[in-house]
Amino acid sequence: MLFESVRRDRRPAPPGRLVWVGELRLHVEERGFGELPVVFLPGYLSSTDAWYGVLERLGPDTRALAVDLPGAGYSDHPLDVPYTAPWFADQLASLLDALCIPRAVVVGHSLGGSIALHLAARHTARVAALALVSPLVYVQPAPPGLRLARVAPALMRAFFRSPVGRMAIPPMLRRASFLNGKVDAHERSQVLLSHLDAPGGWEAATTMGLAALTHAPGPELIRQVFQPCLMFWGQHDRCYAPAESARLQRDLGGPTRLVLLERSAHNGHEEEPARVAEELCRWLAELPNRPQVRAAPRAAAQGGRAP
């Protein structure tokens, strides 16, 4: 497996642990204890820290594992893999094997939601239930950056590595993901750039972005998913229209529940983490054969980052 070694990795040490999955190391952060693990998958270019606001609000009786997708965050960035949603799903099934987890609830945002649906369809016995936050489903128009990447990927990488391109990232991220400055887009951009600047980061991001829309789950795959599903959708989502939620509910084969986040855009788990954690804990407690779970006390849920 090929990895780029020209650039130095200037990031601090990963906050979690690196787990070997075949020839890949995947970064995993774990909190709490519980009989049924809950695995959190970030969206495109995002990393485990995007889930901190939710994780710190879950009670200690919920075993939560946040995972950096291959090619993102602190996980390895190989150069010779397809980065398609089916490939991601197979890697995550192998990660569950490596962690000795026979079955889990899978929570996914955006691209992570697309991968969660593929995982549920391809490895049905491994997924007890799904929670999706503004998932990438059906055919979606490519954003300008990916349209440029299709035509000239090297030019796209050169632009976003340039001073002008790096200055453009915070406002682009703010418009695409957040509502009314509720999350510091500049801070989130610095985290994103630190991972992109790591060896292989830009190359993996390009390949991943181009593959994501091609393998967005369509009706045929979604109708193979019969696990219970909780959906969160930002009412002001500019990436994927909230109206898609009704179509997704119709196509899913199992019981569904929709929570509209009235004060959020695409990254509702970052903009309304308390609401997401509360609804998630309530839904987890209602799952068949699921032990009772509780949200962390409100006083212990202050702050925007986990330790």
Query: What low-confidence regions span 5 or more consecutive residues with pLDDT below 50?
Result: 298-307
Mean pLDDT: 89
Q: How are the strands ordered across the major sheet? A: 1-2-4-3-5-6-7-8
The end-to-end distance, rounded to whole angstroms, is 33 Å
Task: Write down the domain tally.
Answer: 1
Taken from the alpha-carbon principal axes, the silhouette is: globular
Tell me the major beta sheet. Answer: 8 strands, mixed
Using the coordinates above, name the CATH class.
Alpha Beta
- State the assembly state of the protein chains: single chain
What is the count of β-strands?
Answer: 8
Estimate percent helicity: 25-40%
CATH architecture grouping: 3-Layer(aba) Sandwich
Number of helices: 12
Structural class: alpha/beta
CATH topology, which one? Rossmann fold
Radius of gyration: 18 Å
For CATH, the homologous superfamily is named as Alpha/Beta hydrolase fold, catalytic domain
Would you give an account of this structure?
This protein has 12 helices and 8 strands. Strand 3, helix 1 and strand 4 form a beta-alpha-beta unit. Strands 1-2-4-3-5-6-7-8 form an 8-stranded mixed sheet, sandwiched between helices. Helix content is 38%, strand content 15%. It has one domain: Rossmann fold (3-Layer(aba) Sandwich), CATH 3.40.50.1820. The protein is of the alpha/beta class. The chain starts with 16 loop residues before the first strand and ends in a 21-residue tail after the last helix. The radius of gyration is 18 Å and the shape is globular. The C terminus is likely disordered.
